[in-house]
Write a structure and sequence with these properties.
The chain folds into two domains: about 130 residues, ornithine cyclodeaminase, domain 1, CATH 3.30.1780.10; about 180 residues, NAD(P)-binding Rossmann-like Domain (Rossmann fold, 3-Layer(aba) Sandwich). About 30% of the residues lie in helices and about 25% in strands. It has nine helices and 16 strands.
């Protein structure tokens, strides 16, 4: 059984186009019904803003693994100088049940999250070829910073400007890479939001606040799921989810749209519709596209497979008895 930690994943490095390809492969397993994914339970105790979540799945195809991600999310950790999330993934051979790997790092979850966003961006640009893009990222924690790395690799010279914003001060020296000169530290979320062709929420917001009309034809990547007021439904009907049953709970923006505005599953499209049915192309060009991903265990298992395969080829990690 191969043990990997964060240092091991850093040695392997980030190839965003490859991790996005890997997520796309998993989406085809969803389409082919070659997967099993129970609804994930949430464990809460004492401070109920904290949660520990079990994400369980089997993924077939070339991935052919079963696995669980056990992830603790403690939002107040940022005030203690600790990571918000701690995560361990255990992978088992799908045919024998034998343990294959333990991956002890929240980095896998971060890469999975940004790669799912990258897949949406890939298909958004495929359906609506665009240049001179303004990209905006709200939240400059690990997920926000990795989204920054991902979009600059995926979009490259299509980018005209990148806005970043956080309630906490963003230090300029935390912005690195070839697009540093195109990056603006916004003073308000509105400054980042109003002209964004691609707007990405990577916050730990406890309550929604985004209530303005988004830019026509933009892509709204609602990764943190609790930033938009239900007023967004006045501006778009193109609501996409990864999995309706997963995302329509836990006081997400989707659940609030369901409870307050009557949004139903049949009113939405899924990530399978995006990847396999090119559904974005069916919307008018000026229609705002909004993606709401709760986070799927199948994508964690697929990302685990990606890292285990590379680690074994490179001789990285520790084999445990």
């Amino acid at each position: 059984m191969l043990y990997l930690n964060e240092k091991d994943l850093i040695k392997i490095g980030l190839n965003w186009n490859a991790t996005i390809d890997n997520i796309e492969q998993a989406v085809h397993c969803l389409k082919n019904k070659d997967y099993v994914q129970p609804v994930k339970p949430y464990l809460r105790y004492r401070d109920l803003t904290n949660r520990v979540i079990a994400l369980i799945a089997f993924v077939g195809g070339k991935i052919n693994l079963a696995g669980i991600k056990w992830i603790a999310s403690f939002p107040d950790n940022i005030n203690r100088g600790l990571p918000r999330a701690h995560s361990v993934v255990i992978l088992n051979d799908a045919d024998t049940g034998a343990p294959v790997s333990v991956i002890n790092t929240a980095m896998l979850s971060i890469v999975r999250t940004a790669s799912v966003s990258g897949l949406m961006i890939r298909h958004f640009i495929k359906a609506r070829p665009m240049n001179n893009l303004t990209v905006s990222i709200l939240g400059w924690g690990p997920i926000g910073r990795h989204h920054y790395k991902m979009v600059t690799e995926v979009l490259k010279d299509r980018i005209a400007k990148i806005y970043v914003y956080d309630l906490r001060e963003i230090k300029p020296d935390t912005i690195t890479g070839p697009y540093k000169d195109k990056t603006v530290i916004a003073k308000t979320w509105q400054e980042a939001y109003r002209d964004a062709d691609i707007f990405i929420t990577c916050t730990v917001s406890k309550a929604p606040y985004v209530d303005e009309k988004p830019k026509a034809g933009s892509l709204q990547l609602n990764c943190s799921l609790r930033d938009y007021k239900t007023k967004i439904l006045d501006y778009t009907k193109a609501i996409i989810v990864d999995d309706w049953v997963e995302v329509c709970r836990e006081k997400t923006d989707i659940e609030m749209m369901h409870l307050e505005r009557g949004l139903k599953e049949e009113d939405t499209k899924s990530i399978v519709d995006v990847v396999c049915n090119n559904c974005i192309a069916a919307y008018p060009k000026n229609e705002v596209i909004m993606f709401n991903p709760m986070g799927m265990a199948v994508f964690d298992v697929a990302t685990g497979r990606y890292y285990v395969d590379i680690a074994r080829k490179m001789g990285i990690g520790q084999e445990l008895e």
